[in-house]
Amino acid sequence: MSNYSIGIDLGGTKILIGLVDRQSGQVLHSVKKKNKKEKGIENISRKMLSGINELLEESDVNLSDIQSIGVAAAGQIDRENGIILGAPNLDCFDFNIKELLEGEYKLPVYLANDVEAATLGELKFGAGRGCDDLVCVFVGTGVGSCIVKDGRIIRGATGTAGELGHIIVDLNGRPCGCGAHGCLEAYASRSAIEKRIEGALKKGRHSLILDYLEEGKSITSSMIRKSIERGDELVTSCVDEASEYLSGGLASVINLINPKLIILGGGLIEAVDYFYQKTIKEAKLKCLPVPATKIEFRKTALGDFSGVIGAAYLG
Ligand SMILES: [Zn+2]
Predict the structure, then answer these.
(1) pLDDT tens across 133-164, in order?
(2) How far, in Å, is the centroid of ligand 1 from the Cα of 19?
């Protein structure tokens, strides 16, 4: 009887690999490897394999005790064939993960989008436990989401459903990385907030965030939190603006899908409670009155491990 699965969260800055107890959903042991976008497929392959081997050695578990390996990756994927089609954040294109890992370990290997895997983790063992009708929204570099209806993940005709970040909120608006204009993530993501703050600083506006910013380093969610706590006007106004847009996006989700629960996660939500509280309050005011009576909001409960745990249950 195989009691464990290995879950891998493949991100632009780190590769997180966990040994997951299939009964409890607990991560019994984990290995973290640094990743650099520009290093590409070969680097990722090497780090994944050495990470899995370390995990097995350190946790004293045999391959025969492992049921499957699941991989969560940010980007467009071919779920059926286990291929990362295009992941700009990982600099991976046409990367056959299934072939690599099945060849090495002779175990079933599954691949999913990172937002989907994190949602599966939260649904089974996190903030979504006991609820079968929800939407998970992650706010970070972009804005990603995943819809769960009757306990099942809704993927759509091409497996790309849930692209909340690319609903258009301003027809003549800011350019988005996808090529369109006025997408929600150009207004409500952490990167959008960073750009607004940096733009204002370049124009000579003063901000307490300068106390934390080092030359050549980018703005982090915790710098944003500290600046707001100290009452910084510029950072607070940029976060307020992002919250205005995100709450509008969430109100649209509530009106369109009528879920029972919206789970919010990602670095900005976890670090900046002011942003979370303001956004959920405004989303309730902006959506239609009837769905507003039933909607509930929660933060993700599994933190960094939601993708690893979700990946372990793919298949
Ligand atoms: Zn877009």
Answers:
(1) 999 999 988 899 999 999 999 999 988 899 99
(2) 35
CA of 36 to the centre of ligand 1 (A): 24
With tokens 């607070």, the residue in question is 236
163 Cα–ligand 1 center, Å: 9
User: Distance from the CA of 187 to the center of ligand 1, in angstroms?
Assistant: 10
CA of 18 to the centre of ligand 1 (A): 32
Provide the edge-to-edge strand list for the sheet that holds 152-154: 152-154, 143-149, 134-139, 261-265, 296-299
Flag whether the pTM goes above 0.90: yes
As its CATH architecture, domain 4-121+305-312 has 2-Layer Sandwich (3.30)
Topology of domain 130-299 in CATH is Nucleotidyltransferase; domain 5 (3.30.420)
List, in sequence order, the alpha helices (H) in 230-294.
233-257, 267-271, 273-286, 289-294
